[in-house]
Automatic annotation (TrEMBL), chain C:
Family (UniProt): Belongs to the CPA3 antiporters (TC 2.A.63) subunit C family.
Gene3D superfamilies: 1.10.287.3510
Topology within the bilayer: Multi-pass membrane protein
Entry GO terms, CC: plasma membrane
The protein's name: Na(+) H(+) antiporter subunit C
Superkingdom of origin: Bacteria
Compositionally biased spans, kind Basic and acidic residues: 112-127
Species of the source: uncultured Rubrobacteraceae bacterium
Signal peptide: none
Bias (Acidic residues) ranges: 128-139
Length: 465, 928, 139
C-alpha cells in the first residue's frame, strides 16, 4: 500500500496545493514559499520513489482499484522518475527565484504548481490517454505563464506558444486515438505488446505523427520556429520552466513512445531521427553564434542541444537510450541555470552562468561533459565505421560551436565589466548558484546520474525487446 | 599519498576564503599552500610514491586512479615549486598591476583562486592514470587559464585572448575525450597502464592516439595550433611565467609523456610528433628572433622549446623520453625566471619593448646576473642544468642519423641567438628607459630560480633521478641518463660547440637575415593559422547572421512549419512502406446514410469558414458546424457527448461573440477587408495537413484492432460501479483520473483568463448606458433563472442512470446566470454571490474532487477508489444514491459552474469597461 | 465508411489549418476550434463498436464503444477550455497592440528584434584585432 500512496504524492501534492493556493493572493511572499515547499515535498517524494524503484523495480497502482487496463494505471519506473525529478528540480528553483524577485501575479504559484503536477503526472502514468490529459494540464498552465509579467511581447509570445502547441497537441491526440483504434487499449504496456502483432505498415504512420508532436514540444528543427520568440520573451523563471522542465515532455515522450511503445517503428525510422537530430544540432548552434541577447543565444542553443537527444535516440539500444536520458537531464539543468542567470545581475550570477556555459560546452567538472561522453559512447557503438565517423565528427563540430556561442555571449554579458548595474536580490542569486552547484556536484560524482540513466534505458530495452 | 593533491586542490578555495576576509592575505596563504604541497610531493616521492585507485563511476568503469610515479612527481614538483615562486612574486606584483588598472585589491582574490586552481589541477593531471580523469583535470587547467588570461576583464583584447586560448585548448580537449572513448570501446578500460598492455599497432591506435596527441600538442602550443600562446601574454606576467613553464603548456607535453607508452607503438605517431616538433622549433625560433615585445619573444621561444621536447619524444628511444623530461625541468626553471625578469623590467621602467630598453645591468645588477644565469640555462651553457638537457637532445638525435644532428644543432643555435637578444637587449648596450626602484620581492624570486639553474649544473643527481623516473613511466623501460661532465670529447660536446658557434654567427649576422625573418613573420601573419582562426570565427558570425535572416518570425510560417514537416514525415513513412492491403474502404450500411449526411454537413460548414468574410457570420458558421457535429455524435450513439457538445458549442459561441464585441467594430470591419495574400501557399499547406490527417485516420480506421477492446470490460463492470450509463461510469470512476485532469485544465483556464483580462485595475464602469434589452428577454431570464438550476440538479443526479454528468449540470446552471447577464447587463448581475465568488466556487469544486480522489488513500485503497465498493448496495435517499462517485460529480458541477460563470463575468466586465471607455464599440444597429 | 469518415475528419482538419494560416487573430482561434473538432470527430469514429447508446441494460444490437465517448468528452472539454483561453488572449493582444492583424503584430515583433540587434554593440570583440606588434624595430 505504501506504493499506492507514494506514486500519487509527486503529482498529488502540487495538485492539491495549487487548488488551495488559488484562493489566496500569490503575490504574498508566504504563498510563494508554501508553493515552493510543496514542490520540495513533491521532489522529496520523487527521490523516495526513485529509491524504491531502483531497489524493487517498477511501482504500479491502478486508480480506482479496477483491474489493470480498465482503470488508469500509474506506473513509476526509472525513466519516469528521472524525468520527473529533474523537471521538478528546475521548477522548484524557478519558483524560489521568482519569490525572491517578487511575484507579480495572484495566480502565479498555483500555475507553477500545476505545471509541476501535470509534468509529474505524465511522467508517472502508464496510460496513453491519461498522458495526454496531464500533458494538457502542464501545457495550459504554461500557456498562461508564458504571458507572465504581461509585457506586450510576452502576451504575444504566449499566443504564439499556445496556438502552435495546441496544434501539436491535436496532432498528438489524433495519434493517441489512432493507437486505440488499432490496438483496442489505452494502457501503454498493452499497446506496446499489441502493436507487435500488427502490420508495421499501419503503425508507422501513427508513429510518425506522434513523433512529430513530440519534436514540436522539444523544439527540434524544423518544428522549432515558435521556440525562440517564446523563450526570449518569457520572464527568466518562466523561460527556465519552459526549457528546463516542459521541454522534457518531448524527450520523455520520444523515449517512452518511441523506445518503449513503438520500438520497431523507431528502429525503422532511425535514419530520419538522426537526420533531424543532425539538422537541429547544426542549425541551432549556427543561429546561436551571433545572437546578441543572452536568452536568445540560449534559446537557439536549446534547439541545438535537443538534437543530441535525437541522435542518441536514433542510435537506440542501451547505450543510445542511456545517452538520451542522461543528456536530457543535464540539458534541463543547464537550461535552468542559464535562463535564470540571464535575468540577474551581480556577484555569483556570472559564476553560475559560467558553470552553465561550461556544462553546455561539455567542459568538466560541470555535468555537461557526462552527457557528452554518453552521446559519444552511443555514437561509437554504431555498427558501421562510416556512421561512427560521421556521428563523432558531427558531435565534435556541434560541441566546438557550442564553445563559441556560449563564451561569446558569456564574455559580452558577464565577463566584461558593466557599469551601474544593480545586483539582483541575494536570495535569487543564491538559488541560481545552488542550481549551478548541483550541476557541479553531478559532474564531480556522476555515478548516480549514470546509474539512473542506465536503469531508465533498461526499462525501455527490457520492455521493447 | 593523496596529501599533495589534497593540499594542492584545497589551496584555491582556502586562498579565496582568506581573500574574502582580507585581500592582502590571499597571496601569502596561497604561497604557503604551494610550499606545503611541494613539500608533501617531495616527501611522497622520496618515500616511494604510491597509488590510489578507487571506483568513481563504476557504471562506466571510470576510476579515480592516481599515482605518484616519476612523471607525476616531476610535474607536480614543477607545478608546486614554480607555483610557489610565482606566488611569492605575485604578492608584490599583483597589487601594482591592480593599481595600474585602477582596480580594488579584492579583485586579486580571484587571481589567487584561479592560479591555485591551476596548480591543483596540474598536480591532479600529473597523477591521473585514467583517461577520463585526465580529461577532467585537463579541462580544469583550461578553465583556470581562461580566467587568468582574461584577468584584465575590462580590456577587450584580454578577453579576446582568453576566448582564443579557451577555444583552441578546450575544443581540442574534446579530441582527447574521443580518443579515450575509442580506446575504451575497443579495450574496455580507461586506465593508461592497462591500455599500454592491451593496445597494439593499427588504425585504432593511430586514430585514438593521434586525437589524444593533437590535444596535447594544442595545449603545448605546437604548430599549427600555436597562435593562442603569444596572445595569452595578455595575462599578468606571473601568470605567463607559470603558464609557460610549469602549467598549461607543460600540461601538453605531460599528456604526451603520459600516453607515450601507447604512442610509441605507432611509427606513424612518432613521425608525426617529429614533424610537428621540428616545425614548431622552426616557426617559434624564427619568430622569436623577430619580436620586439618582451613577452612575445619569450612566448615564441616557448613554442620552439616545447617543439624541442616534442621532437625528443618523436625521436624516441630512452634518451627521447628521459631527456624530454629532463629538458622540461631545465626549461621550467629558466623560462619562469625570464618571464619574471620581463615583468620586473616592465614594472620598473614602464616599457615592454626591447627597442626601448637597454643598459639595465648598472641599475639592476642582481637582476642582470640572475636572469643571465637563467638565460645560460636556457641556452645550455656548461655549468648549468640546461647543458645536460641539450646533451640528451643531441644524444637522441645522434641515434637517428645526420639529418637530425643538423636539425638539433640549428635549433640549439637559434635558442642561443634569441635568448641572447633578450638578455643582451635588456641589460647591455645603451641606456633605454630609466628604471625605478623595485621591491626585492620582484628580484629575489628570479635570483632563486637562476641559482637553481646554476646549482643544477653541479648537483645533477636529483634532476637526473627525477627525469629518469619520469622517463621510465613514459618509456616503459629504463632510461638511464648520465648527467655528468666527461673528460673525453663526446660527439654531443662537438654538437654543443657547433651550436654555440652557429649561435654566435646568427647573433653577429643579424642584419643579413633580419629582413628574411621579418618577411616570414609577415607571411605568417597574412596567411598563418591565426588568420584562419579569425576568419573562421568572423565567418561563423556572418553565417549566423545570414541564417538568422531565414528564421521565420510570423505565426503563419510557424504553423506551416509544424504541418508541412509532419506531412513530409507521414508521407515518407507511407512511401517507405508499401501500403497495399493496409487501407480499406470499409463497408457502407444503408442506415449509415443519415450519419453520412450529417458528416457531409460538418465538412461543408467547416469549409465554408474559409470563405466567410464577416466575423459574426464566421461565428455563426462555426457554431453551426459544432451543432451539426453534435448530430453526428448522436448518430454514433453517444448521447453524453451530444449533450456536452451542445453546451460547449453554446458557451463557445457566446464567448466568441463576446470577444468580437470587445473589439471595436471598425477594427473588425477593416480586418475583414484586408487582403489575404499567399493564397496558393495557404491552400498548399492546408491540403498537405489534410492529406496527412487523412492518411493517419484512414489507416487507423482500416486496421482491425489487435485485440479485444477494453471497452467491453467497462460495459461488463459498470454495474460494479453502481451505474447504468457506461460513459458516465467511465468518466467518474474507471477513468476518473482523466476527468480530474480535464477539469483541472478547465479551472486553469479560469485562472488564466482571470489573470489576463479579469484583474485589470481599470475602474468598473458605472452609470453608463447599458444596451437596452427588450422586456421579453428580461422576462424570459427571470422565468428561467430557477428552472435552470432544477434542470442542472436533475442532470447531475440522473447522470449515473441516464445521460448527464457534473459538467453538463454545471454549464446548464451557469446558463441561468448568463441569461441574466444578457438581459440585465453586467451592472445588475455582478452583485450575485455566485458571480462574485465564481472563482472560489470553482476551486472549491476542484478541492472536492481532489478530496474524493485522495480520500481512499487514507483507507489503504488505491487513489480514486469509489465507495461503496462493488457488491455493496449504496444507501438511497429518495432517488439519490449516496456514493462518493456522486460527490465527485458534484465537485465537477461546482467547478464547471464557477468556471462558466466566472468566464462570462470576466468577459462581461471587460465589455462594460470597454463601452465606458470607448462608446464607439457599441454595435450600431444593422451593422453587426 | 472508414474512408468517408477519414475524409470528413481530414476536411475539417484542413479547414482548421487554413484558418490558422490567416492574418486575423479571431480566425486563428476559430481554426484551433475546428482542428480540435476534427480530433474529437476522429476519436468518436475510432470507436471499435457502433450501436445504441451504452446505457444498461443493453439491447441485443450492442452498444457503441463507451471508451471513445469518454475520451471524446474529455478532449471536447479541454478543447473548449483552451479555446476560451485563446479568446482572452486575443482580447489582450488587441488591447495592447490595437489590432487583431497578425501581420501588424508580427511587424511590431520584428521592430523589437531589430532594436535588440542594434542596442548591443555589433562590434564582435571576441575576435582579436590585428596584431599591433610591428615585428622588430631596427636596432
Amino acid at each position: 500500500m505504501r506504493d499506492g500512496v507514494l506514486i500519487v504524492l509527486p503529482a498529488g501534492i502540487p495538485w492539491v496545493l495549487a487548488a488551495l493556493l488559488a484562493f489566496v493572493d500569490g503575490r504574498k511572499r508566504w504563498v510563494g514559499l508554501v508553493g515552493a515547499a510543496g514542490l520540495a515535498a513533491s521532489l522529496a517524494s520523487l527521490v523516495w520513489l526513485t529509491l524504491v524503484v531502483l531497489r524493487e523495480g517498477t511501482v504500479e497502482t491502478v486508480a480506482g482499484g479496477w483491474p489493470e487496463g480498465v482503470g488508469i494505471s500509474l506506473r513509476a519506473d526509472a525513466l519516469g522518475v528521472t524525468f520527473a525529478a529533474v523537471s521538478v528540480t528546475v521548477i522548484l528553483a524557478s519558483m524560489l527565484y521568482e519569490v525572491a524577485l517578487g511575484v507579480r501575479w495572484r495566480a502565479f504559484p498555483p500555475l507553477v504548481l500545476l505545471v509541476a503536477a501535470g509534468l509529474t503526472g505524465l511522467f508517472l502514468t502508464g496510460d496513453a490517454f491519461n498522458f495526454y490529459v496531464f500533458f494538457e494540464i502542464s501545457m495550459t498552465a504554461s500557456f498562461v505563464l508564458a504571458g507572465y509579467r504581461e509585457e506586450d511581447y510576452q502576451v504575444r509570445a504566449a499566443f504564439i506558444f499556445a496556438v502552435v502547441n495546441l496544434l501539436g497537441s491535436v496532432v498528438f491526440l489524433i495519434g493517441i486515438a489512432a493507437l486505440y483504434s488499432i490496438t483496442g487499449s489505452l494502457d501503454m504496456a498493452t499497446i506496446a505488446s499489441r502493436t507487435d502483432s500488427l502490420d508495421p505498415r499501419s503503425v508507422i504512420v501513427v508513429a510518425a505523427v506522434i513523433f512529430a508532436a513530440f519534436c514540436l514540444k522539444l523544439g527540434l528543427f524544423p518544428f522549432h520556429f515558435w521556440l525562440p520568440a517564446v523563450y526570449v520573451g518569457s520572464h527568466p523563471p518562466v523561460a527556465a520552466i519552459l526549457s528546463g522542465a516542459l521541454a522534457n515532455i518531448g524527450g520523455y515522450g520520444l523515449l517512452r513512445f518511441g523506445g518503449g511503445i513503438l520500438p520497431r517503428e523507431l528502429a525503422y525510422g532511425s535514419a530520419a531521427v538522426m537526420v533531424l537530430g543532425t539538422a537541429s544540432i547544426v542549425y541551432g548552434a549556427l543561429q546561436a553564434i551571433s545572437r546578441r541577447d543572452t536568452s536568445e543565444v540560449m534559446a537557439y542553443s536549446a534547439i541545438g542541444q535537443v538534437g543530441y537527444i535525437l541522435l542518441a535516440l536514433g542510435v537506440g539500444g542501451p547505450l543510445g537510450f542511456t545517452a538520451a536520458v542522461l543528456y536530457s537531464v543535464v540539458n534541463s539543468l543547464n537550461k535552468g541555470v542559464v535562463f535564470l542567470a540571464a535575468g540577474l545581475r551581480g556577484p555569483f550570477v556570472g559564476a553560475a552562468f559560467a558553470v552553465g556555459a561550461f556544462s553546455i560546452a561539455g567542459v568538466p567538472p560541470a555535468a555537461g561533459f557526462v552527457g557528452k561522453i554518453a552521446v559519444f559512447k552511443a555514437a561509437i557503438a554504431e555498427d558501421s565505421a562510416v556512421t561512427v565517423a560521421l556521428l563523432v565528427v558531427l558531435i565534435f563540430v556541434g560541441s566546438a560551436l557550442s564553445f563559441l556561442y556560449s563564451f561569446q555571449v558569456y564574455q559580452r554579458r558577464f565577463l566584461a565589466p558593466r557599469e551601474g548595474e544593480k545586483p539582483g536580490p541575494l536570495a535569487a542569486r543564491l538559488v541560481v548558484l545552488s542550481l549551478a552547484g548541483l550541476l557541479l556536484a553531478l559532474g564531480l560524482w556522476p555515478e548516480p546520474l549514470i546509474y539512473l540513466s542506465g536503469a531508465a534505458a533498461e526499462v525501455l530495452t527490457g520492455a521493447g525487446g | 599519498m593523496l596529501l599533495p593533491l589534497a593540499l594542492a586542490l584545497m589551496a584555491a578555495p582556502a586562498a579565496a576564503l582568506f581573500g574574502v576576509a582580507r585581500p592582502a592575505v590571499a597571496g601569502p596563504a596561497g604561497a604557503a599552500f604551494a610550499a606545503l604541497a611541494f613539500g608533501a610531493t617531495l616527501w611522497g616521492w622520496l618515500s616511494g610514491g604510491g597509488a590510489v585507485d578507487v571506483a568513481w563511476a563504476p557504471s562506466w568503469d571510470l576510476r579515480l586512479h592516481l599515482e605518484l610515479d616519476g612523471l607525476a612527481a616531476l610535474y607536480a614538483l614543477l607545478a608546486t615549486g614554480v607555483g610557489f615562486v610565482v606566488l611569492v612574486y605575485s604578492s608584490r606584483y599583483l597589487p601594482l598591476h591592480l593599481e595600474h588598472g585602477g582596480r580594488p585589491d579584492s579583485d586579486g582574490t580571484s587571481f589567487y583562486f584561479f592560479i591555485l586552481l591551476f596548480m591543483g589541477s596540474m598536480v591532479g593531471l600529473a597523477m591521473a592514470q585514467d583517461l577520463v580523469l585526465i580529461f577532467v583535470f585537463w579541462d580544469l587547467t583550461a578553465i583556470a587559464s581562461y580566467y587568468l588570461i582574461g584577468f584584465d576583464r575590462h580590456d577587450a583584447g584580454s578577453r579576446a585572448s582568453a576566448l582564443m586560448a579557451l577555444l583552441v585548448t578546450g575544443i581540442t580537449a574534446v579530441l582527447l575525450l574521443i580518443g579515450a572513448l575509442l580506446l575504451y570501446a575497443a579495450h574496455g578500460t580507461f586506465s593508461v597502464p592497462e591500455l599500454a598492455g592491451l593496445v597494439g599497432p593499427g588504425p585504432l591506435l593511430n586514430t585514438a592516439g593521434g586525437l589524444i596527441a593533437v590535444a596535447g600538442l594544442a595545449k603545448s602550443a605546437q604548430v599549427p595550433l600555436h597562435f593562442w600562446l603569444p596572445r595569452a601574454m595578455a595575462a599578468p606576467t606571473p601568470v605567463s611565467a607559470y603558464l609557460h613553464s610549469a602549467a598549461m603548456v607543460a600540461a601538453g607535453v605531460l599528456l604526451i609523456g603520459r600516453v607515450y607508452p601507447l604512442l610509441l607503438k605507432s611509427e606513424f605517431l612518432l613521425d608525426a610528433l617529429l614533424v610537428v616538433g621540428i616545425l614548431s622549433m622552426a616557426v617559434g625560433g624564427v619568430l622569436a628572433l623577430t619580436r620586439d615585445v618582451l613577452k612575445q619573444l619569450l612566448a615564441y621561444s616557448t613554442i620552439a622549446q616545447y617543439g624541442l621536447v616534442v621532437t625528443m619524444y618523436g625521436l624516441g628511444g630512452p634518451y627521447g623520453a628521459g631527456g624530454a623530461a629532463f629538458y622540461v625541468i631545465a626549461h621550467a626553471i629558466a623560462k619562469s625566471a625570464l618571464f619574471l625578469t620581463a615583468g620586473t623590467v616592465t614594472e620598473a621602467t614602464g616599457e615592454n619593448r626591447l627597442s626601448r630598453l637597454g643598459g639595465l645591468r648598472k641599475p639592476m645588477p642582481l637582476l642582470a646576473v640572475a636572469s643571465g644565469l637563467a638565460a645560460a640555462t636556457l641556452t645550455a651553457l656548461p655549468l648549468t642544468v640546461g647543458f645536460f638537457a641539450d646533451e640528451f637532445f643531441f644524444a637522441a638525435a645522434l641515434e637517428r642519423g645526420p639529418l637530425f644532428v643538423v636539425i638539433t644543432v640549428v635549433a640549439a643555435a637559434t635558442t642561443l641567438a634569441y635568448t641572447w637578444r633578450f638578455w643582451a637587449g635588456l641589460f647591455l648596450g645603451e641606456r633605454g628607459a630609466a628604471p625605478r626602484e623595485v621591491s626585492w620581492l620582484l628580484v629575489w624570486p628570479v635570483a632563486a630560480l637562476g641559482a637553481i639553474g646554476l646549482i643544477g649544473g653541479f648537483l645533477t643527481g636529483p634532476f637526473e633521478g627525477l627525469a629518469e623516473a619520469a622517463g621510465r613511466a613514459s618509456f616503459g623501460g629504463s632510461t638511464p641518463l648520465d648527467a655528468s661532465y666527461h673528460a673525453e670529447v663526446l660527439p654531443e660536446y662537438l654538437m654543443a660547440l657547433g651550436a654555440y658557434v652557429l649561435g654566435a654567427v646568427l647573433i653577429v649576422s643579424r642584419p643579413v637575415w633580419s629582413p628574411a625573418a621579418l618577411g616570414a613573420s609577415r607571411l605568417g601573419k597574412a596567411a598563418g593559422p591565426e588568420r584562419l582562426y579569425r576568419m573562421v570565427v568572423h565567418g561563423l558570425n556572418v553565417v549566423s547572421d545570414g541564417v538568422h535572416r531565414l528564421e521565420i518570425q510570423n505565426l503563419r510560417g510557424r504553423i506551416s512549419f509544424v504541418l508541412v514537416p509532419t506531412a513530409v514525415l507521414v508521407g515518407a513513412s507511407v512511401l517507405a512502406t508499401p501500403i497495399g492491403g493496409v487501407y480499406r474502404v470499409g463497408g457502407f450500411r444503408a442506415d449509415d446514410a443519415p450519419l453520412m449526411l450529417a458528416m457531409l454537413a460538418v465538412a461543408v460548414a467547416s469549409v465554408t469558414t474559409a470563405f466567410v468574410r464577416r466575423h459574426v457570420t464566421l461565428a455563426l458558421v462555426l457554431s453551426g458546424s459544432g451543432f451539426v457535429l453534435a448530430v453526428v455524435y448522436a448518430f454514433y450513439g453517444a448521447p453524453n457527448v451530444v449533450l456536452v457538445a451542445v453546451l460547449v458549442e453554446t458557451m463557445l459561441t457566446l464567448l466568441l461573440i463576446s470577444t468580437l464585441r470587445l473589439i471595436p467594430y471598425r477594427i473588425l470591419h477593416r480586418q475583414a477587408r484586408l487582403p489575404s495574400p499567399g493564397l496558393a501557399r495557404k491552400v498548399f499547406v492546408s491540403v498537405a495537413a489534410g492529406a496527412f490527417a487523412f492518411v493517419v485516420v484512414w489507416g487507423a480506421l482500416s486496421q482491425p484492432p489487435a485485440g479485444s477492446s477494453v471497452a467491453e470490460e467497462h460495459i461488463r463492470l459498470t454495474p460494479d460501479a453502481h451505474a447504468k450509463n457506461v460513459v458516465t461510469a467511465t468518466l467518474a470512476d474507471f477513468r476518473g483520473l482523466d476527468t480530474l485532469g480535464e477539469i483541472t485544465v478547465v479551472s486553469l483556464v479560469l485562472l488564466g483568463v482571470g489573470t489576463l483580462i479579469g484583474t485589470s485595475p481599470a475602474k468598473e464602469a458605472t452609470g453608463v448606458h447599458q444596451p437596452a434589452s427588450r422586456g421579453v428577454t428580461r422576462g424570459i431570464a427571470r422565468l428561467l433563472y430557477l428552472p435552470t438550476f432544477v434542470i442542472a440538479a436533475a442532470v447531475l443526479v440522473k447522470g449515473f442512470v441516464q445521460t448527464g454528468d457534473g459538467f453538463s449540470a454545471g454549464v446548464i446552471a451557469a446558463l441561468g446566470i448568463v441569461l441574466r447577464y444578457m438581459a440585465f447587463g453586467h451592472e445588475a448581475t455582478r452583485g450575485i454571490p455566485a458571480v462574485r465568488h465564481a472563482a472560489a466556487v470553482s476551486f472549491a469544486g476542484l478541492l472536492v474532487t481532489l478530496g474524493v480522489a485522495a480520500a481512499p488513500l487514507l483507507l489503504g485503497e488505491p487513489v480514486l477508489t469509489h465507495f461503496p465498493r462493488a457488491g455493496t448496495e449504496p444507501l438511497h435517499i429518495g432517488t439519490i444514491e449516496v456514493m462518493t462517485a456522486v460527490l465527485f460529480d458534484f465537485g465537477i458541477f461546482l467547478l464547471v459552474f464557477g468556471f462558466a460563470v466566472g468566464l462570462v463575468s470576466y468577459f462581461a466586465r471587460s465589455i462594460s469597461q470597454r463601452e465606458a471607455a470607448d462608446p464607439e464599440t457599441l454595435p450600431r444597429e444593422g451593422e453587426a | 465508411m472508414a474512408v468517408y469518415a477519414a475524409l470528413v475528419v481530414a476536411v475539417v482538419f484542413a479547414s482548421g489549418t487554413f484558418l490558422l494560416l490567416q492574418r486575423d487573430l479571431t480566425r486563428v482561434v476559430v481554426g484551433i476550434i475546428l482542428v480540435s473538432n476534427s480530433a474529437v470527430l476522429f476519436i468518436i469514429s475510432a470507436g471499435l463498436t457502433r450501436g445504441a447508446a451504452p446505457i444498461l441494460p443493453l439491447e441485443d444490437e450492442g452498444a457503441s464503444d463507451p471508451l471513445v465517448q469518454a475520451m471524446a468528452l474529455t478532449a471536447l472539454v479541454i478543447g473548449f477550455g483552451v479555446a476560451a483561453l485563446l479568446l482572452a488572449m486575443v482580447y489582450r493582444l488587441y488591447a495592447t497592440h490595437g489590432t487583431i492583424d497578425l501581420e501588424e503584430i508580427a511587424a511590431a515583433e520584428m521592430r523589437e528584434a531589430e532594436a535588440l540587434e542594434r542596442t548591443d554593440d555589433p562590434e564582435r570583440e571576441e575576435i582579436p584585432v590585428e596584431e599591433q606588434d610591428p615585428g622588430d624595430g631596427p636596432r
